[in-house]
């Protein structure tokens, strides 16, 4: 399959930030709903909101919160939310087959140089011998739903370590919070999750690290930005403005929490902004390490790995979780950002 790259960088909506003011005028006072999960990985959205980057583009944003990727996907497809950032799932491909959603940009990704998702065993399972990913066979594994990103990551581990996927008991628990509780109490044996959540489980003694997911899938496009097909097709100025603003949030996030090139006072200010939405039940000093020490990279300029998207579709079709008629082109609109 062949995807065309974005038009020349000088005209790119994500790198031509000097044009932000004029673009903002084009969509002045436009009200939009942006869907989000209360996860540290969604910090760029919260930063862009708090620092006024959306307002700079003429966008009046109302944040809508969800507890799982599938619910957010359905909300975007139904028009209740205009844009969202979440994992690529079977639900998203099924909606794409119906022609109602489009992925328009990338977001969180594995980076071989940066600590990424952690493969965990419950303390109970670890003590009973689950000490490495290759031993997950015959155990239970936490997921939100079948066809979720967690299901995909399990499949990659199974393939690389040579055990049958159907030899693992997938436990769909719907919400991330429910999976956290299940692995902490030994109700499930294994899980894979971003370091901002994994490291808290490790510190609390609720789980034991048995591997790094980046060793299995170093180009994994963990999350992506998506919208309805109608908006992607008919509201280009608005969508470009949204992505410009979000890309500024990404730049701040990477500088502060991944590349460590931002001054401490600025970093502290960003932590405070994100803490308004994530980890609100803990003091900010307790929450801060989930950003300052445990952040994964978000793709610069919201670039998208179409190669990873295609690999995820292959998994879903191989396991009959989506129709074999679905194509990557049905899901991805490659005209907004750089793709690879």
UniProtKB/TrEMBL annotation:
<comment type="similarity">
    <text>Belongs to the bacterial solute-binding protein SsuA/TauA family.</text>
</comment>
<protein>
    <submittedName>
        <fullName>ABC transporter substrate-binding protein</fullName>
    </submittedName>
</protein>
<keyword id="KW-0732">Signal</keyword>
<feature type="domain" description="SsuA/THI5-like">
    <location>
        <begin position="43"/>
        <end position="252"/>
    </location>
</feature>
<dbReference type="InterPro" id="IPR015168">
    <property type="entry name" value="SsuA/THI5"/>
</dbReference>
<feature type="signal peptide">
    <location>
        <begin position="1"/>
        <end position="28"/>
    </location>
</feature>
<dbReference type="Pfam" id="PF09084">
    <property type="entry name" value="NMT1"/>
</dbReference>
């Amino acid at each position: 399959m062949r995807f065309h790259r974005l038009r020349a960088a000088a005209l790119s909506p994500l790198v031509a930030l000097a044009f932000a003011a004029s673009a903002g005028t084009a969509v002045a006072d436009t009200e939009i709903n942006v869907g989000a999960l209360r996860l540290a990985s969604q910090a760029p959205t919260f930063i862009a909101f708090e620092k006024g980057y959306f307002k700079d583009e003429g966008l009046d944003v109302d944040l809508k919160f969800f507890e799982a990727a599938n619910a957010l996907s359905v909300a975007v497809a139904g028009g209740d939310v205009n844009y969202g950032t979440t994992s690529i799932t079977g639900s998203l491909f099924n909606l794409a087959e119906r022609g109602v959603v489009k992925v328009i940009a990338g977001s969180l990704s594995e980076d071989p140089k940066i600590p990424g998702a952690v493969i965990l065993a419950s303390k109970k399972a670890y003590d009973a011998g689950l000490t490495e990913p290759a031993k997950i066979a015959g155990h239970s594994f936490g997921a939100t739903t079948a066809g979720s990103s967690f299901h995909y990551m399990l499949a990659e581990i199974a393939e690389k370590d040579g055990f049958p996927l159907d030899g693992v008991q997938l436990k769909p628990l719907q919400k991330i919070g429910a999976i956290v509780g299940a692995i902490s109490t030994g109700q499930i044996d294994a899980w894979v999750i971003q370091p901002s959540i994994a490291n808290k489980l490790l510190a609390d003694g609720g789980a034991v690290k048995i591997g790094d997911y980046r060793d299995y899938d170093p180009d994994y496009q963990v999350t992506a930005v998506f919208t309805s097909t109608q908006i992607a097709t008919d509201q280009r100025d608005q969508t470009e403005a949204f992505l410009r603003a979000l890309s500024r949030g990404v730049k701040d996030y990477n500088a502060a929490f991944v590349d460590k090139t931002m001054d401490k006072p600025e970093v502290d200010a960003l932590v405070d902004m994100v803490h308004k939405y994530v980890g609100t039940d803990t003091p900010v000093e307790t929450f801060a390490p989930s950003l300052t020490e445990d952040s994964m990279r978000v793709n610069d300029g919201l670039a998208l790995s179409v190669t990873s998207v295609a690999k995820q579709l292959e998994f879903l079709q191989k396991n009959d979780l989506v129709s074999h008629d679905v194509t990557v082109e049905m899901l991805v609109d490659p005209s907004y950002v750089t793709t690879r």
